[in-house]
Design a protein that fits this description.
Pathway: Pyrimidine metabolism; UMP biosynthesis via de novo pathway; UMP from orotate: step 2/2. Keywords: Decarboxylase, Lyase, Pyrimidine biosynthesis. Belongs to the OMP decarboxylase family. Type 2 subfamily. Its EC number is 4.1.1.23. There is one protein chain. The protein has about 280 residues and is an alpha/beta fold. The protein has a single domain, classed as TIM Barrel, CATH 3.20.20. It has an 8-stranded parallel barrel with strand order 1-2-3-4-5-8-9-10, surrounded by 8 helices. Helix 3 packs parallel to helix 5. The chain is globular and about 60 Å long.
Length: about 280
């Protein structure tokens, strides 16, 4: 399989964009036609239909789509079928499929997670929680052509509770925990066929710039533009031209809650994609 960075470049070139559209089908915010229904089956079916409509409306300007697994798993078994249908729609669009489950476990458990994400759902990349150490990252790097976006500097307000702590590493150097984590992930990928990428929040552009300087070739997945307060300009300056996907979920999905939601989503995606042009 073609290495992930090359496929990222191809998807960005085809769409003229580094935009990643997050697919978080919240029943409290979806248009009523999709959120209503007396059964969980109706809810899962509506979530899938809504996401497929968003994919169709925005694929022209998006390089990738990122289903958030929690919004599908909440429906129970029917949610898995809904997720599978959405993943199929993303694959059919020709764009990258980023599976956002923030998985992270060791040994056979991690490998089964990776099998689910890469071999069953056919994801191009996944988000990975690294707290258990290098052997919780490695299973997600054992699949050729895939990318593990390791959580490093996240966009949520509580991210700094741990990520900003200064710790002494095995080499005796003191640096932020996020930097230890990023270095660990790079080491975990040594000799493995997958690509190490990083989740780097737009709300901390100074840290994004540090990550880019330290790892100029690593793909970055950047949440936090728009509703969380990050700006496209800050992200572009900090990224300095490196490989990147900038995610937006709520600002595109719920640009309108009415019958014209597809048009509103398309226009919101186009505006953000234009603002992210170098």
């Amino acid at each position: 399989m073609t290495p992930f960075p090359a496929r990222l470049a191809a998807a960005s070139g085809a769409s003229g964009s580094v935009l990643c559209v997050g697919l978080d089908p919240d029943p409290e915010r979806m248009p009523a036609a999709f959120a209503s229904g007396a059964s969980e089956t109706a809810g899962a079916t509506g979530a899938a239909a809504f996401c497929r409509a968003i994919v169709e409306a925005t694929a022209e300007r998006a390089a990738a789509f990122k289903p958030n697994l929690a919004f599908f798993e909440a429906y129970g078994p029917d949610g898995w079928d809904a997720l599978d249908a959405v993943c199929e729609a993303v694959r059919a669009s020709g764009r990258l499929l980023i599976l956002d489950g923030k998985r992270g476990d060791i040994g056979n458990t991690g490998r089964r997670y990776a099998t689910s994400l890469y071999d069953r759902l056919l994801g191009d990349a996944s988000t990975v929680a690294p707290y258990m150490g290098s052997d919780s990252v490695a299973p997600f790097l054992e699949h050729e052509g895939r990318c593990a976006f390791v959580l490093v500097t996240t966009s949520n307000p509580g991210g700094a509770d741990l990520q900003a702590l200064v710790a002494r590493g095995a080499d005796g150097d003191e640096r932020s925990l996020w930097r230890h984590t990023a270095d660990m992930a790079i080491r975990a990928g040594d000799g493995l066929p997958g690509t190490v990428g990083f989740v780097a929040g737009a709300t901390r552009p100074e840290l994004l710039a540090e990550i880019r300087e330290a790892y100029p070739e690593a793909p970055l997945l950047v949440p936090g533009v728009g509703a969380q307060g990050g700006t496209a300009g800050d992200v572009l300056r900090a990224n300095a031209g490196g490989p990147i996907l900038v995610n937006s979920s709520r600002g595109i999905l719920y640009a309108s809650g009415g019958d014209g939601f597809e048009r509103a989503a398309r226009e919101a995606a186009s505006r953000l994609a234009d603002s992210l042009a170098p």
